[in-house]
């Protein structure tokens, strides 16, 4: 079982693991994210085609193989080239958090209590070279993602598929018996346990077809065979990706992607402030530019708010994420619930939010699940700290716990701010706890070491700053890795930092996993979160928000609620 | 300040000095006097930092979230970065920490590290320079190359590398001072060596040698006093140089660790705010400028006072 948090295109999309949860059938309900749809009377999907779209990014071009990409809902750029069995729905508003069929004709037919999932491919699907796409190509694409040479994808299938554990990919000659392709249009997945969420997982790039004849292993990403509206003209790892129209694709076989621009030029390796500047000034080709990984920085927010021309060119969204303080409840002093509650009362969420850029870039969190119907969040605030903390109540609890004279604790955090839990946030937490008589000693770790140290119970610090993001908009991938007692991985890669192993919680997770109707599963996840919250195992701090600028000639840049960002396959520059 | 400037300013002509007159000349030099007062005030502010912040009623680490406009990215409310009776130089965007408190506490780090590094550079530079200048041809050949390498090595890179490999447990200000020393003792050693070589053939040195003085005694009692003038000037120029070095390292994230304040670190975090909170950039930047100017003027004054021939040139 591997658990790797992964930052993709600016949003931290965190991996959950194995027995992840139920939802499915395609009736997922929407997220309550803030959205500003750019009003654009001039946009018409029928005539939007043409022009060159420029994408200015900080990173995200380190790899482009469908097996190694780790995406939520297929990702921003990969989804232009790789079609998957299902995909996120490209519409504004809450319906954008639902999966819809992409290569398949529907969201899949569950059988055996959601232990098998059967998909049928659409008619008329072709690769860029004109050869038809078959279910065997989809199976082969998934098998590749098991090869040790092609690491990095979402780990779910390794655990979910009946013979997923130990499979070493197709290059060793073996195939996955748990994926059956009775004919060229049918594909059946056999799972070890019920997973009502399967249609959400099927949006990942690992579910895109790869023609075996043209597979070149690790070199495949240099000349991948497109199934989507664009094909790769040029790819320089880490620097540049040029996409041009794939003439074998048409809107007749794809009802999700508008694919307006004729050409898309993506540049990576730019500085965040440079991207901000270029998008806001919008001169030359930058007028038709967007970014898929750089939110407007706190320094520029006041300017964006004060300039009506800029304010129009901003997409505000939310990607389901929670930044929180994690306790190890097996270690002193956090084995005492009163100490954990004291910390929860003491935190000053206002100063934490200001530290990472203010209320435009984050909202205070008191629940572990992010806001929104899709997650099934049930609002709760058991240890009300108010906006700025309640040190008096915290001191009272500490005195009860026998720490009337104060307490000294270490706080672990990564020494970079990319995940929003680094050197900006840690001093804000330190200052708030100081008011409650808790002396916090900062313990910064290098970003590379951090997950290794916190992911192994033997080396895990008792108190650390953590982040968790949704692989898809549902409660399961949020709660399972963090609170399922069977997910405590002593060898490393552990995310159940509280070391919670509560049979009642485990049992409820299994029960929700059998539900294939997301609308029914969501409130159950919410209720589970609200129950677990009473134990103060984590202190949620904030949910991040994004403020994404786009060039002045860019149209139809509505916010995709699944990813909290505008959708590249929908924007137009004509 | 480049290396050549520094050495040129230090002068190469040995002038065994008449120091009583020098002090008088220094006090009569108006720009040097003003600079001296300014340097003194800064040093005093740094020393009395806890007192001054207590007077203001603030400290350098407490957050003030209510003084920030959260909806505008966390910029301070009010004009000029939130300057008020409570916060004399305003508050820091994003955190609301008091800028005055951070500036005076930052001065302790910046000036302390710069002074400590200068003293260390002098000790190492003089020792190696004297050894090279007086120790004979072979030792000179070896040490001369060592000095040249030390000078030629890209100093910032070496300092960054040193900061990276030394364990985290070593106190950062000490580490910064050592890193700066490691890359900056070279030109002091070179000046010392050159001066020592020209002084060693002076008659009074020969006299001491004939009287049977040991080499160490000659180096310390006969040669070193003759080096005082150029070295004092060089040291005075080194201090602002080292302030910049500390600021540079902190700016690059290799200096002291937050929440310990330092000027370079303040500059580093402030640069991105120049459009929305210019006061936050101007205050640490301006202070650094004034400090450097004061130290440079003072060093200039020291040089003029110690070397009367250059006065009014």
TrEMBL record, chain A:
Among the GO molecular function terms of this UniProt record, one is: peptide transmembrane transporter activity
Biological process terms from the Gene Ontology for this record are: peptide transport
Coiled coil located at which positions? none
Gene3D superfamilies listed in its UniProt record: Dipeptide-binding Protein, Domain 3, Periplasmic binding protein-like II
Which residues does the UniProt record annotate as the domain Solute-binding protein family? Answer: 98-486
- Point out the signal peptide segment: 1-21
Keywords on record: Signal
| Transmembrane segment boundaries | none
> What PANTHER family does the entry give?
ABC TRANSPORTER SUBSTRATE-BINDING PROTEIN (PTHR30290:SF83), PERIPLASMIC BINDING COMPONENT OF ABC TRANSPORTER (PTHR30290)
Quote the protein name from its UniProt record: ABC transporter substrate-binding protein
Automatic annotation (TrEMBL), chain B:
Source organism superkingdom = Bacteria
Q: Tell me one GO biological process term.
A: transmembrane transport
Which InterPro entries has this protein been placed in?
BP-dependent_transpt_permease, MetI-like, MetI-like_sf, OppC_N
Question: Could you tell me the keywords of this UniProt record?
Answer: Cell membrane, Membrane, Transmembrane, Transmembrane helix, Transport
Task: Tell me the membrane topology, using the record's own terms.
Answer: Multi-pass membrane protein
Region annotated Disordered sits at: 1-20
Q: Which residues form the ABC transmembrane type-1 domain?
A: 107-299
Give an example GO cellular component term for this record: plasma membrane
Residues crossing the lipid bilayer are 33-55, 109-134, 146-166, 172-192, 279-299
One matching Pfam family? BPD_transp_1
Location in the cell reads: Cell membrane
Family stated for the protein in its record: Belongs to the binding-protein-dependent transport system permease family.
Q: Which PANTHER family match?
A: D,D-DIPEPTIDE TRANSPORT SYSTEM PERMEASE PROTEIN DDPC-RELATED, OLIGOPEPTIDE TRANSPORT SYSTEM PERMEASE PROTEIN APPC
Tell me the protein's name.
Answer: ABC transporter permease
Please give the organism.
Actinomadura harenae
């Amino acid at each position: 079982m591997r658990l790797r948090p992964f930052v993709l295109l600016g949003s931290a999309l965190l991996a959950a693991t194995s027995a992840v949860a139920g939802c499915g059938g395609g009736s997922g309900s929407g997220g309550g994210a803030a959205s500003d749809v750019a009003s654009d009377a001039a946009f018409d999907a029928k005539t939007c085609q043409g022009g060159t779209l420029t994408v200015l990014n900080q990173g995200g071009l380190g790899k482009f193989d469908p097996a190694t990409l780790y995406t939520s809902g297929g990702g921003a750029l990969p989804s232009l080239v790789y079609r998957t069995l299902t995909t996120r729905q490209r519409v504004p508003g809450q319906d954008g958090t639902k999966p819809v069929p992409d290569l398949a004709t529907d969201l899949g037919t569950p059988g055996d209590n959601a232990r098998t999932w059967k998909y049928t491919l659409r008619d008329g699907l072709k690769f860029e070279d004109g050869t038809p796409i078959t279910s065997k190509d989809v199976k082969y694409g998934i098998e590749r993602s098991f090869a040790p040479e092609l690491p990095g994808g979402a780990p779910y299938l390794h655990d979910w598929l009946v013979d997923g554990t130990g499979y070493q990919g197709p290059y060793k000659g073996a195939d996955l018996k748990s994926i059956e392709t009775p004919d060229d249009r049918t594909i059946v997945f056999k799972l070890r346990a019920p997973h009502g969420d399967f249609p959400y997982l099927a949006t990942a790039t690992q579910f895109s077809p790869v023609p075996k004849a043209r597979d070149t292993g690790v070199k495949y990403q240099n000349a991948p065979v497109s199934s989507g509206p664009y094909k790769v003209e040029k790819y320089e790892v880490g620097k540049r990706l040029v996409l041009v129209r794939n003439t074998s694709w048409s809107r007749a076989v794809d009802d999700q992607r508008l694919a307006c621009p004729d050409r898309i030029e993506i540049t990576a390796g730019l500085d965040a402030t440079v991207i901000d500047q270029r998008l806001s000034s919008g001169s030359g080709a930058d007028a038709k530019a967007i970014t898929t990984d750089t939110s407007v920085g706190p320094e520029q927010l006041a300017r964006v708010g004060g300039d009506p021309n800029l304010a129009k060119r901003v997409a505000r969204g939310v990607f389901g994420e929670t930044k929180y303080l994690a306790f190890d409840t097996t270690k002193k002093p956090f084995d005492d619930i009163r100490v954990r509650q004291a910390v929860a009362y003491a935190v000053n969420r206002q100063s934490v939010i200001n530290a990472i850029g203010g209320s435009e870039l984050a909202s205070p969190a008191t629940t572990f699940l992010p806001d929104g119907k899709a997650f099934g969040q049930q609002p709760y605030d058991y240890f009300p700290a108010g906006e700025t903390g309640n040190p008096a109540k915290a001191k009272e609890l500490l005195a009860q716990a026998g720490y009337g004279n104060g307490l000294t604790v270490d706080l672990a955090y990564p020494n970079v701010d990319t995940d929003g839990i680094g050197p900006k946030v840690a001093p804000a937490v330190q200052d708030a706890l100081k008011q409650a008589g808790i002396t916090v000693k900062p313990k910064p770790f290098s970003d590379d070491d951090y997950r290794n140290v916190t992911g192994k119970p033997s080396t895990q610090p008792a108190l650390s700053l953590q982040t968790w993001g949704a692989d898809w908009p549902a409660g399961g991938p949020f709660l399972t890795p963090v609170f399922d007692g069977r997910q405590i991985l002593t060898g490393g890669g552990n995310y159940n930092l509280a070391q919670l192993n509560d049979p009642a919680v485990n049992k409820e997770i299994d029960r929700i996993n059998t539900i294939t109707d997301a609308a029914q599963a969501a409130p159950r996840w919410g209720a589970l979160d609200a129950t677990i919250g009473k134990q103060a195992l984590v202190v949620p701090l904030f949910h991040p928000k994004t403020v994404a600028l786009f060039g002045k000639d860019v149209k139809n840049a509505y916010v995709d609620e699944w990813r909290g960002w505008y959708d590249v396959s929908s924007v137009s520059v004509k | 300040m480049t290396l050549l400037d520094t050495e040129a300013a230090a002068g190469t002509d040995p002038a065994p000095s008449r120091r009583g007159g020098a002090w008088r000349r220094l006090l009569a030099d108006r720009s040097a006097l003003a600079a001296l007062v300014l340097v003194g005030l800064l040093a005093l502010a740094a020393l009395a930092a806890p007192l001054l912040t207590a007077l203001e009623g603030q400290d350098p680490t407490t957050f003030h979230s209510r003084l920030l406009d959260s909806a505008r990215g966390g910029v301070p409310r009010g004009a000029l970065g939130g300057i008020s009776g409570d916060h004399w130089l305003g508050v820091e965007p994003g955190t609301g920490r008091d800028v005055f408190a951070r500036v005076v506490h930052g001065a302790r780090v910046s000036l302390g590290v710069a002074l400590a590094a200068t003293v260390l550079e002098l000790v190492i530079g003089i020792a190696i320079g004297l050894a090279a200048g007086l120790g004979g041809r072979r030792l000179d050949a070896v040490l001369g190359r060592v000095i040249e390498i030390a000078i030629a090595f890209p100093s910032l890179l070496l300092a960054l590398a040193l900061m990276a490999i030394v364990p985290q447990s070593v106190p950062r200000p000490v580490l910064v001072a050592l890193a700066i020393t490691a890359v900056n003792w070279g030109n002091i050693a070179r000046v010392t060596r050159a001066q020592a070589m020209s002084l060693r053939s002076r008659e009074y040195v020969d006299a001491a040698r004939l009287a049977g003085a040991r080499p160490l005694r000659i180096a310390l009692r006969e040669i070193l006093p003759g080096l005082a003038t150029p070295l004092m000037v060089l040291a005075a120029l080194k201090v602002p140089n080292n302030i910049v070095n500390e600021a540079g390292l902190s700016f690059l994230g290799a200096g002291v660790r937050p929440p310990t304040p330092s000027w370079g670190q303040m500059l580093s975090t402030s640069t991105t705010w120049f459009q929305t909170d210019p006061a936050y950039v101007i205050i640490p930047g301006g202070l650094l400028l004034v400090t450097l100017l004061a130290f440079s003027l003072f060093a200039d004054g020291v040089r003029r006072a110690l070397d009367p021939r250059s006065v009014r040139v």
